[in-house]
Amino acid sequence: MANHSQLSFQDASSPIMEELVEFHDHALMVALAICSLVLYLLTLMLLEKLSSNTVDAQEVELIWTILPAIVLIMLALPSLQILYMMDEIDEPDLTLKAIGHQWYWSYEYTDFKDLSFDSYMLPTTELPLGNFRLLEVDHRIVVPMESPIRVIVTADDVLHSWAIPSLGVKTDAIPGRLNQTSFITTRPGIFYGQCSEICGANHSFMPIVLESAPLNHFENWSSLLSS
């Protein structure tokens, strides 16, 4: 999760988030190069003496027409690749259904016969020592590590948004509609998110907590919860 005064992204915990961070750095370097060039030209115009001579500038016009097109291609190709990767869902090992309510989340493990629960934020008065205020819940999502997970997202009342920044996941929850996303956790850990759509008075009090664990731990957890 993010730290105080942190300016960069959270540590990437999925291949998609690693690609998003890399694309961000790539786009930032392109923007830095453009700003440096414009600043250099402005400085040159201010310091050099003006000339009233008119010359044929077809070469210059050709350059400033083609160069922006090349820059746009440099940004578009990796962006389209990441969009394709985010939409591609190929034979997931587990399907999780997330349902947004005012103001809590319900989860259903559709691959199991009877495995579902509601997830409410823990009030400050009941928060165990060392847990995060306004981010901890009474029932965490548990998924197996290094396994493709499909998440089907919907809502029961108003618009919500299921988002976990460190996994690069953000999907709108819309009443009467099923949206889906997918992710693969690359390491064990606990990842925090929140509803990212203003959904009413307690919008900021419906956190998301996902625990990535080894497969045997997940199997023990699911059998214990199903019994």
TrEMBL record:
Residue ranges of every copy of the Cytochrome oxidase subunit II transmembrane region profile domain listed in the record: 1-90
SUPFAM superfamilies: Cupredoxins, Cytochrome c oxidase subunit II-like, transmembrane region
Subcellular location: Mitochondrion inner membrane
Membrane topology qualifier: Multi-pass membrane protein
Domain Cytochrome oxidase subunit II copper A binding: 91-224
The UniProt record lists the keyword Mitochondrion: yes
Keyword Electron transport carried by entry: yes
Pfam families: COX2, COX2_TM
Spans traversing the lipid bilayer: 27-47, 62-84
GO-annotated molecular function: copper ion binding; cytochrome-c oxidase activity; oxidoreductase activity
Keyword annotations: Copper, Electron transport, Magnesium, Membrane, Metal-binding, Mitochondrion, Mitochondrion inner membrane, Respiratory chain, Translocase, Transmembrane, Transmembrane helix, Transport
Catalytic activity reported: 4 Fe(II)-[cytochrome c] + O2 + 8 H(+)(in) = 4 Fe(III)-[cytochrome c] + 2 H2O + 4 H(+)(out)
Any GO CC annotation of this UniProt entry: mitochondrial inner membrane
Family: Belongs to the cytochrome c oxidase subunit 2 family.
PANTHER family: CYTOCHROME C OXIDASE SUBUNIT 2, CYTOCHROME C OXIDASE, SUBUNIT II
Record's function text: Component of the cytochrome c oxidase, the last enzyme in the mitochondrial electron transport chain which drives oxidative phosphorylation. The respiratory chain contains 3 multisubunit complexes succinate dehydrogenase (complex II, CII), ubiquinol-cytochrome c oxidoreductase (cytochrome b-c1 complex, complex III, CIII) and cytochrome c oxidase (complex IV, CIV), that cooperate to transfer electrons derived from NADH and succinate to molecular oxygen, creating an electrochemical gradient over the inner membrane that drives transmembrane transport and the ATP synthase.
UniProt-recorded name of the protein: Cytochrome c oxidase subunit 2
Origin species: Pithys albifrons
